[in-house]
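name: query_chain
kind: protein
chains: 1
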Amino acid sequence: MPAKAPAPYPSQSRLLRDLGARLRAARLRRRLAVTQVAARADVSRPTINKVEQGDPTVTLGTYLRVLVVLGLEKDLMLLAAEDPVGRRLQDAALETPRRAPRPRSSPGNEGDEGPQ
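structure:
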């Protein structure tokens, strides 16, 4: 039996509820019944209800199937398309000065380093 997923934070729950509400609104604008979306997405009617409620136990694949049925799958490509924080971190890593190179010993001093 799979391990139980951790409970989402309140802000994450709010995001999922909002996504579910937007998917429900999209379904209603298209005048599709829950049973039609369920059949086309190859999931059960209660699963579509869970998607529209923003249930965190529903898999991302199921959300994707619903997006495809509604013709909104390209919206998924917008997720994390712009990553300004990551870009700044990447750029900062490029600008990090490296440690100064070790001084090279001159050819005449090579024997001076040995034990005496």
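note: The helical segments are 10-29, 34-41, 45-53, 60-70, 84-95.
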